[in-house]
Amino acid sequence: MATDLELRNDHLAVRLTPDRGADITALTDARTGAQLLYRTPWADSAQPGPWAPESRQSWQALYQGGWQLVCPNAGDASNVAGGTWGFHGEACLLRWRVAESTSDSAVLSVRLSQAPLRIRRRVELAGPVLRVADEFHNESPDPVSVTIVHHPAFGAPLVTPGTRIAAGAQKLAVDPTSGMEPGATLAWPVPALSTLPPGGPGQAALAYFEDFTEHWVSITSADGDLGVAMAWNGDVLPNAWLWFEGRATPGLPWYRTEYVFAAEPASTIPAGGVEHARATGGNLVEIGPRESVATEVCLAVHHDPRPVTGTDLTGRITFEGDDR
């Protein structure tokens, strides 16, 4: 059984869990000591378990927070040829093999059991920048259609009432199940979500960033002392899910106790799973016989209170007032 991996430089510290999906379970800013990723109250008792098709409640019970890779299915369990792909897939539940590890980088891999995919992941730190690069190789002589979503969730002190959200998207499509503006299609920025609300009844959202001019999202703390800016390759991940829980949802699993925001680079919308996407003409990642696709997500940490106007895969952030 592999132990957690700790990557560190002068700016950031990262913890990965090879035994559970190669999740990034901690991302710490060295300057402030702040933990940037959300952590569930039950994280210490959430133990890895077997994949199960009826898996929404099981997945949530095991959810520790942090950053997951969601593949081959994202969202509701889906019927596929020969069986079922569970809620949020299996990549984030399986044990990954550590191929390489240094003080500031690691390479891991896994072969899925429910899809013919071998995934190779490289995680590395460079200054205040975390890069996560994944390659998905189809080992089958037949094509395969999958969803790929990165699922980083952020909590206090970065995410609190008044936290500012910016994005390179022009539109926000709200899921019909959302507690805020259900079913609406809105021009971004949306006041109710570009500055996070106080929290309370009705203040939860599931929505989808669309029509990106550049593929990035930023999150800046209410006091402006801390922020992250995230960019990704839009050819495979053309959209991003937005998930916000503002102490609003009664019952399992949140019980109106949690305040968390996630911006999730995504291949596919809405969050209904592969089966729903196929039935409604949604975008899926098509990987040809013995071919590969790749994703890259770059997250940069900053301490500039100015509004973010963009970032890219080098980790360079632009702010309001910068020379163009």
From TrEMBL:
Gene Ontology biological process terms from the UniProt entry: carbohydrate metabolic process
Pfam families named in the record: DUF4432
GO terms of molecular function: carbohydrate binding; catalytic activity
SUPFAM superfamilies linked to this entry: Galactose mutarotase-like (SSF74650)
Top-level taxonomic group: Bacteria
InterPro entries linked: DUF4432, Gal_mutarotase_sf_dom, GH-type_carb-bd
Name this protein carries in UniProt: Galactose mutarotase
Organism in which the protein naturally occurs: Saccharopolyspora shandongensis
Lineage start: Bacteria, Bacillati, Actinomycetota, Actinomycetes, Pseudonocardiales
